[in-house]
Amino acid sequence: MWQTLIYIPAKVGGIPLFGFGLLAVIWAVISLLVMALQLRRSGWNADAAGTLVTLAVLGGLICFVLPNVMVEIPGTRSADGRPVYGLPIRGYGTMLLLAVAAALLLAMHRARRRGLDPGMVINLAFWIILPGILGARLFHVIEYWPVHYGPVLREQGWAAALAAVVNISAGGLVVYGSLIGGLLGGAAFIVRYGFPFWATLDLITPSLALGLAIGRLGCFLNGCCFGGACDLPWAVRFPPGSPAYEHQLAHGDLYIAGVKLGEDPATPQGPPVIRSVLPGSPAEKCGVKIGMPVLAVNGYATTGENRGRGAEPRVLAPGCASGLCSWAGKGEHPPDSVRAGVRLLLHAVANAGRDGVPVEIALTTQDGKTLRWADASPLPARGEPLHPTQLYSSLNALILLLVLLAFEPFQKRDGELLALLLTLYPIARFTIEILRNDEPGAYWGLTISQVLSIVLLLSAVGLWIYLRRFGSRKADPPVQ
Known about the structure:
Layout: E1 4-9, E2 11-12, E3 15-16, H1 22-42, H2 46-65, E4 71-77, E5 83-90, H3 91-113, H4 118-156, H5 158-166, H6 175-193, H7 197-222, H8 243-250, E6 259-262, E7 273-277, H9 282-285, E8 294-297, E9 300-301, H10 336-348, E10 359-365, E11 370-375, H11 389-407, H12 416-435, H13 448-470
Helix pairs in contact: 1-2, 3-4, 3-7, 4-5, 4-6, 6-7, 7-11, 7-12, 11-12, 12-13
């Protein structure tokens, strides 16, 4: 995982870079040149207006947004000891931009080989990219509103909830949402400018697969869209601060003070039980056994109305910046009692291992006994091994791209390339979802992506039937 690639300092040679600084000056000069060339070539028209809007949005980002998203650069101080701030370049966002650029270049290459104007593809891209991102984010927000964004709204207000909704740097773009939004935007462009509908969609279909292949690498760098437990040689272990690590921490999958907590299947609403004890740990030596119910940790109850009250941790694993780590929205919540037990253990070991000073852990079991031990071990430096489902998805998209390009010479009707994509992708996505562990099975034991995969596959069957009965023979979109 590599969430942050580099930090761009706020000042270069003492000159502010963001806001109304050096970058804004460069933007203004380039914008004037672009608009002058646009007006000289075709005068004021819809394309010129679209270019102006795009440049204005970019300028707004430079002047008003970037100055407010800078963070303190870790391990750096100015000459007078003050923190140095900079703009973090996230791995997720970088791969997303590379995905868009690669997809656009492929579509332009395919258009040029057909004797088409590549400028048409650029205009089409503006109609696809923004609706695609909006659709991807909207899908995520709707899916996780009850467990993430809704609680933020209730506890912190509209401003915090809006900030959480628009913050995509930590992930939170759903592929199906981007596919729906992008196709709707592309369809609107095709209808608006009178291009052949299915032939134009076929032109950009391989670009969708290429963009997905690169974009999933961003998911891997970010640590989201992770898989379940895995003991294969290529299993990956994510560090603190990643969604995968926080998910495992929340569900009791990581050792805290030598123990793992979990739900008792016989009494789901009851106290958490000991799932595992680290061999040779102080917890094992003092008599902690698997299956023991835990009624309290250091005197704080794990069940009832007062569970965990008064025991909010202040210092956690590196990267866990929000109380008990921001695992909300990273899959199904563990039971409240398990949550409380993990929270209490985290509070107890918050400063464990610092200066070699052990902390005292006291577990109260169901028979009224209290087991006490001293522990100086910090939280695990890495999570448990998981399936790298992000890489599985990336490889699947790359194979899908090759299949689409290999099928194209044998294509008989416009739209068949898109139909093939809508047939193969949901099958692979449904299968990969079985290995993923970041989404709850909320619909008949299936994740929402699996349900949509079934719907999309049925829609693809209908599209094949429609194309065979009413589709036109393969043709390239005309130059316009």
